[in-house]
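Hi everyone, sorry if this is the wrong subforum. Our group has a chain we'd like a structural model of before ordering constructs, and none of us has done structure prediction before. Sequence below.
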Amino acid sequence: MKRSTFVLPLMCLFFAVTLAYAVNKESISKNVDSIVAALDSGKAAASYAPDAFEPYAFIMQEDGKMLVHPSLTGENLMEKAPPVYQALMKANPEGVWVEYEWKGKTKHTYAKKTKTNLIVGSGY
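Answer:
Right subforum, don't worry. Here is the predicted structure as tokens:
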């Protein structure tokens, strides 16, 4: 009986964390998809505030220039963080989850290309 008292709450915690993780990924991809759709319809990238979404979303040109980002707007990611840039270059029109290291932590980003080849991403 004591064992089930310990295992059951642990299993509940595991399932709660797993569900929160899945909802977070769904929310992230939905935000990115909506930004891409707006950009594809003619909305200007500069009209987005970097912190308009939680977690933040970014917009990058194919050459690495960050058009929208909370701290890197105007900087070139290809020069500043080549491994991150290379991971984000896997973005495609369907959207893809990529993984990379940033400041010692593994990051997971949903990245998607617009019709004009801008890369929109967000992650955790």
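For your construct planning: The helical segments are 2-40, 77-80, 82-88. The two ends are 39 Å apart (CA to CA).
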